[in-house]
Each structure stands twice: as C-alpha cells, then as structure tokens.
Amino acid sequence: MFSPQERNGWPQNVWAVTERGEPLEAQRESDGIYHGYPMPEADPFREEVLERWAIQ
Q: Are 8 and 32 in contact (CB under 8 A)?
C-alpha cells in the first residue's frame, strides 16, 4: 500500500505485511531512503493495513 502524499514523486509512506502476518510501515526520509519498522499494536492504522492486505 502507498500513501497519497509524495516527496519528489515518491510515496511518503509504504505499508506491507510479512509472510508471518506482521504489518510494517516504511517512511521516506529527507535523504530519499525509506526506513521501515513493525507497526505498533496501538497504531489504529495497523488493523486497516491487515484488512486491506488480506483482500489482495
């Protein structure tokens, strides 16, 4: 999944789910590199990512 916000033509955020079902979020930093991490369980968008990914 990609966010509608962009920086220099690239999505600001990217979300994915691992083969084990763990949702991840990557954010584009000012250096142009994405830095990713597991989404915290308290993040309300976590469930949205899991639901949308399951539809794929």
A: yes
